[in-house]
Amino acid sequence: MARDIPVGNGTLLVNFDEDYCLRDLYFPSIGKENQTDGHKSRFGVWVDGAFSWVSREWNISFEYVEESLVTRVTASNEKLGVALVCNDLVDYAESMYIKRLILRNQADREREFRIFFNQDFNILGSSAANTAYYDPDEKAIIHYKERRYFLVTGMRNSVQGIDQYATGIKEFHGMQGTWMDAEDGILSGNPIAQGSVDSTLSFTVKVPPMGAGKIEYWICAGKNYDDVRRLNKMILGHGLEHFTQRTDNYWKAWVNKERTEFPELPDPVEKMYKKSLLIMQTNIDKGGAIIAGTDSDISRIFTQDTYAYMWPRDSAVTAYALDRAGYQALPRRFFEFCYGIITQGKESLGGYFLHKYNPDGSLGSSWQPWVSDNHKILPIQEDSTALVLWALWRHFDRYRNVEFVISLFEHLIMRCGDFLASYLDDATGLPLPSYDLWEEKWGIHTYTVSAIYGGIKAAERFAEFFREGRRKRIYERAAARVKAALEKYLYSREHRRFLKTINPVKDGSFERDLTVDASTYAPFYFGVYEPDDERVVNTMHAIIDTLWVKTPIGGLARYENDTYNFNGKNAGRAPGNPWFVCTLWLAQWYVAKAKNLQELHEADRILEWAAKRALPSGIMAEQIDPVTGQPLSVMPLTWSHATYLSAVLEYMEKERRLKETEVAYAESRR
């Protein structure tokens, strides 16, 4: 189930599903310790003896307040005669989630409404050994386990306190939870429960005919009771309006700090750009880890695991996009995070990153083995190491922050550079086999080789800047070998395009994978060849001809016969589901090769496609259904938003240069 309108601050993140249920609550790290474990925390309305949980059966619209990480959700239920306008936010500085709710009575008589909120915590990712109790001092429900505390309370019509509450056992011996107790409009008042528990509380408001009532609800998160008590006192002392306004002000200031102008781009593209910046921010931990996605529902099809990890590739691409947008603090923390996790190489060659990492820097789960055919292999995606260097050079080239980069020079930059330059086959100059960017195939891949070239060139530029002449020459020679090998072994003159993958066989030849793959766009993007080079042009045309989805939805699939989340229908018109990143790579090529403004505008339709295929709130999934356009897999996917951001920024930079060229030419003709 899709996630929408995430709100967070780098320490606390809250996700909602299509039923407007709170489904994920990460604290104190983004991507680690989902304190709900994906369980639904519902809220609903009782009036005139009838009850309904807010869900897709209501008429719901999800949006953000413009240029902000404060939501604006409307929900109405014709049968109950009620309409809601809700704002959700996580305070930009403190670990507090706030919901402000305006309830409109659509009847021509006064009515009593009871608003019920259910809390289904699975603290530290487990239902075991939780406690929920009513705290009379704070007029709140407290959930706790070990060093994690959550205080839940609220107010109605500006009066703090809970009208009803219940704590109880859930999902054990047939007991479903206190949320079932709410459906008759009356809660039991049970004051404490332990083990697998949930809680429900309610607020009562009398609303005049065609009038409105106000309910405010909040969750304070902390590591002990004093933490959450302090936050609750802050809310009661300052009022929710204070925290709502300061958070809205902060995000509006943050997203507009660069005063980016979009003179030639359609309005939806500009709005999507700002939404992407904000949405990306929700998936970035304050410790520097950039998380791929925090949608816990993917665990149902992803072997009970999620995307809630730091993948170096996705993160490097995101850091690059943020740097181009002028947000250097977030990439800087990411590079410092990488400094702490790079392999040391005490007993073997170091200087590479493994598959993926938790936000605390520990190694994440993996499906990439350390042996193949009874021989030890290095289970890496080498493009991940290369792209961290590639992005770091672009960070430095923009900001020239010498003091920061010199702190990373020996331990991170040169260590990665040395690894990339030495992890090559002596005979061919090709990088040794590793896993591809899709984490599926072992071999030597056009995308990976292109990224390695870009990474080695970044190391060469760093060495030159810091006057490391010997290392510069080593990297220069290695980059030349990699480029020559890419052309010799991975460009097929027979097929007139770059190949997805080759694999060495025992007789010294290569087994070739002839699958057309969108990732073979990479030789131009990482600087191996110019975007108008014949080899690049031929490859891009093959990608467009083979992978463009020939349904009204459009977009580019990853590769031929891609089965991941694909239902197999319309296979003749869709080689797989369209992916945002793959489709946006096409826009980046149109931008890179444009020699005039008319050619540049070829990218417009791709950028507009991405904005149109996102949810109304701006959320981009990993992929979409080629027939219905419905989002599939994880959402939001940080990589999708980062690629959109980069494509728009590259467009604007190219537009500026082309206009300058036109002006210079016109002046020369005078």
Please tally the β strands and state the result: 29
Tell me roughly what share of residues is in helical segments: 25-40%
Mean pLDDT: 95
Quaternary assembly: single chain
Residue runs with pLDDT of under 50 for 5 or more positions:
none
* DSSP summary: helix tally: 17
Strand content: 15-25%
What is this entry, summarized?
By secondary structure, the protein is α+β, with helices and mostly antiparallel strands. Strands 7, 8, 9, 10, 12, 13, 14, 15, 17 and 19 form a 10-stranded antiparallel beta sheet that branches.
Report what the structure shows:
This protein has 670 residues and is of the alpha+beta class. The protein has 17 helices and 29 strands.
Keywords:
about 675 residues; alpha+beta; about 35% helix; globular
Write the layout of secondary structure elements.
Blueprint: E1 4-8, E2 13-16, E3 22-29, E4 32-34, E5 43-47, E6 50-53, E7 59-64, E8 71-77, E9 82-90, E10 96-105, E11 111-119, E12 130-135, E13 140-145, E14 148-156, E15 159-160, E16 164-169, H1 178-181, E17 192-195, E18 197-207, E19 212-222, H2 225-238, H3 240-255, H4 267-282, H5 312-325, H6 329-341, E20 371-372, E21 375-376, H7 382-399, H8 402-406, H9 409-422, E22 434-435, E23 442-445, H10 446-465, H11 469-490, E24 491-492, E25 497-498, E26 501-504, E27 510-513, H12 522-525, H13 534-547, H14 580-593, H15 597-600, H16 604-613, E28 623-624, E29 631-632, H17 638-668
Antiparallel strand pairs: 1-2, 2-3, 3-4, 5-6, 5-11, 7-8, 8-9, 9-10, 10-19, 11-18, 12-13, 12-17, 13-14, 14-15, 14-19, 16-18, 20-21, 22-23, 23-26, 24-25, 26-27, 28-29
